[in-house]
Amino acid sequence: MKQILVLGAGGFIGSHLVKRLKAEGNWVRGVDLKYPRYAPTPADDFVLGDLRDPALVRHIVDRRFDEVYQLAADMGGAGYIFTGEHDAEIMHNSAMVNLNVLDACVKRNIKRIFYSSSACIYPQENQTDPDNPNCREDSAYPAHPDSEYGWEKLFSERLFLAYHRNHGIESRIARYHNVFGPEGSWNDGREKSPAAICRKVAMAEDGGEIEIWGDGTQTRSFLFVDECLEATLRLIRSDFTGPVNIGSEEMVSINQLVDIVSSIAGKQLRKRHVPGPLGVRGRRSDNTLIRQRLGWAPSQALRVGLEQTYAWITEQVRGRSVDC
Fold first, then answer.
1. Using CA atoms, how far apart are residues 213 and 27, in angstroms rounded to an integer?
2. What CATH architecture does domain 3-179+224-246 belong to?
3. CA 166 – CA 195 distance, rounded (Å)
4. Which value, to the nearest 10 degrees, does the dihedral of the CA atoms of residues 237, 242, 243, 245 take?
5. Residue 324 — pLDDT band, cuts 50, 70, 90?
6. pLDDT for residue 323 is more than 60
């Protein structure tokens, strides 16, 4: 039984990760500003606390954990990241967390730590063609992310690599690509496009219309959360530092994403395109490196994960309607 620390355990990926680690039989401490919103945590110990506070971090890093997962960050979907209104908070909050965590881990002689970076680190000029984006790991430099969120993630990658070189910490760095699934944000302004579209489709009447930001031709690849966890565990337990992409190579336009979800719902819906924050024109995970180093690739099609996500969000929509 391993002793494991999950930071950001109240968030979407973190809460799913705690469940996976407990299913393996590990002892798990979770830490976050909040408990998971949609399901009780199975963590053996859950600490409510602010990881920007170095005293709190020293308190929760109270032993030599076998594995530390650092997923805590100030983040959200396009409506949160790309407006520019939250740039200072995003950069300050996430950087403070990472600095505190690494300092505490060095002092406890913790050797193995996973850091969740983001596909948002890739240069925006490599993602202007929605049909042919370039997200190979070695394309990250010269650096030119399209958001301050991306710049902070890139800085923190280098921070974890520096601690790897100078302090012997076995850092493992993944660049997540649009992870989605049940029990994530779907109506609070931080939701990402799969959840937002599932919500809009669930709330729309058959034959009605839904709003889509932009012209809908912007492309993305989306990875179901269970697939993300499998790749994450393979990475932290490997001898490969990274950074490496963890994502899907199945790329769709936002218009196509709407069509898939509408088909799952059995609805015919019109799309009304409106102005809104978009991010880059195209992004898709390049999985060449992770196939070579970890022998991993997603095992299911996008639609399978969307079916599960749509069913869960439909339950939330119905429950909220009853409450109202």
1. 43
2. 3-Layer(aba) Sandwich (3.40)
3. 41
4. -60
5. very low
6. no
Quick: pLDDT tens for 97-108.
999 999 999 999
The structure tokens listed for 314 are 């439909």
Taking Cα atoms as reference points, which of 283, 137, 289 lies closest to residue 220? 283
Active site residues: 149
Question: How many Å apart are CA 116 and CA 59, to the nearest integer?
Answer: 22
The whole-angstrom separation of Cα 41 and Cα 60 is: 17
Is the entire prediction scored with pTM above 0.90? yes
CATH topology of domain 181-221+250-283+300-317: UDP-galactose 4-epimerase; domain 1 (3.90.25)
Among candidates 132, 237, 264, 217, which has minimal Cα distance to 174? 237
Residue 2 gets the label, from left (phi > 0), alpha (psi -120 to 50) or beta, of beta
d(C-alpha 267, C-alpha 246), whole Å: 32
CATH 3.40.50.720-classified regions of the chain: 3-179+224-246
Query: How much is the pLDDT for 257?
Result: 97
Q: Which residues, in sequence order, are CB contacts of 84 under 8 Å at separation 6+?
A: 148
Residues of each domain in the chain carrying CATH 3.90.25.10: 181-221+250-283+300-317
